[in-house]
Structure formats: C-alpha cells, structure tokens
Design goal:
Radius of gyration: 37 Å
Strand order of the largest sheet: 3-2-7-1-8
Helix content: 40-55%
Distance between the termini: 90 Å
Number of strands: 8
Number of helices: 9
Order of helices and strands: HHHHHEHEEEEEEHHEH
Length: 279
Amino acid sequence: MSLLNEVIFRPVDAGYAEAAARPAVARSVGQRRLRATVNLVVAVLLGVVTMSAVLALRAPRPSVVESRTLLEEQITERSADADTLQQSNEELSAEIARRQEEALVGKDPALFDELRQLELLSGSVAVEGPGLVIELDDAEPSDPDEIDPRTLVQDIDLQIITNGLWAAGAEAIAVNGQRLTALSAIRRQGPAILVDLAPLVAPYTVEAVGDVQAMQTAFARSVAANHLTTLTANYRIPTSLRSATSLTLQGSGTTTLRYASVPDDDVASSGATDDEGTS
C-alpha cells in the first residue's frame, strides 16, 4: 500500500520536485553565447573523432591490400599458364592421333577401326553429329535475400538427366562443354556443380549426340522427362528440350587406363588356402 500511495500521491521524486522548485538562474547574453559555443565545439569534435574512427576501421590495412593484390596476380598468372598448358596438351594430342592414324590405317585397318571405336566409347576424342540439347537454369528468386535452395539446379538433377539420356541411346554427352566418360562424376561443391574437377554455373546445357528420333521417344518415356516437368511445375526452374542437326562435343583428353589381370596360380591357390583356414 505504501508503494501505491507513493505512486498516486507523490508521482514526482522529492529530488526532482526540489530541483523544479528552484528559481531559474538568470544568465547574461554573453554567458549563453559562450555556453552554446562550447556545446557546438564539443559536438563538432565528437563528430570528427567518430568519423575518423569509422574511416580508420573501414579502410583496409596496407598489408591486406598487398596480399590481395599479390594473390590476384598469382591467380592471373596461374590461369594463363593453365590455358597455355591446355592448348599445348590439345596440340600434342592431335599430333599423337595423326601419327597413330598414319601408322595404323595402312598396316592394320581393322585395329585402327577398333581403336577409333574404343576412343569414341571412352570419350577421349571429339564427336560430331545430330542430337538433343536440354537446357536448365536456376529459378528467379522472389526474395534476393532469401533464396530457396530447391529453386536451384542441383547435381542430382543433372545426374538424372544424363542417366536418362544414356538410357535413351546417347552415344556421347557433355554438360556445359565438359565431356562425360565412364569415370565422370557430377557432384556439388559449395555453390558450384562439378563435372569431374571442372566447376560449372547456371545456366546448364546438356548436349547428347545420337539418333535424335530414337532418343526423343525413349527419353519422353523415362523418369528423367518426368523429373524435368516436376522441376518446372513445382520449383519454377526453366527447362527446355530441343533437337539439333549438328553438335560437336570435344574429347575429354588423355584417359588414365585401368585394367585387371588374372593372378598367378600360386597366388590364387594361396589365397584359397588362407580363406579355408580362416573359415
């Protein structure tokens, strides 16, 4: 009750009431001007100090600027070196293919034809012919600050599409110019999708060389075609499928050969004996 009485009957603190009851101190015009001048000088000084602190915090340190400049120069130099090596590699590969053709086409045409077929199947040589082109792109975000990952093309989407094209009879496939082989992997790494070690960004173009009519019919009946429809209908991802009279897919370059060998009889029998002993 005492607290309620204080709030109701004495809302103003005694100290505040005493200060309010004091008579106003009469100051001369000179004193008022001096006080206003002092306040203005203090406000200006505080503003200058605050602005200097903000600029000092936002300005990059010289060491950081130098490190970033050095890193940018190194990236540019390494990229140029990689492009030069890639061009040299392509020229040497073309020279090897030419000399190989000269050595085999006259002496053993059957072996040469078999070698060309194997190179085609492995994806190490360029392919040209009619085919299908499928294009996908990320959906336009309704809110740039909050992007739904489901509206972005995922690695699983490209996997489903390329597998559907293989099943439809495609002879060769490339994604954004990156040729797929039996050892290729499509996976996501951060914001980019990797085909082997090459990062790709939207939009994505999947090119498949083969019998156009047969591929269109088989692909339309596959799960991959239904998946494209689902991406467009549910997640606003624009997709398109069209036929092309001529496509050129570059080769994947040098392929690392892997093979299996039959173990020796002694090794095989030793392994069988060990298995029997451990069982």
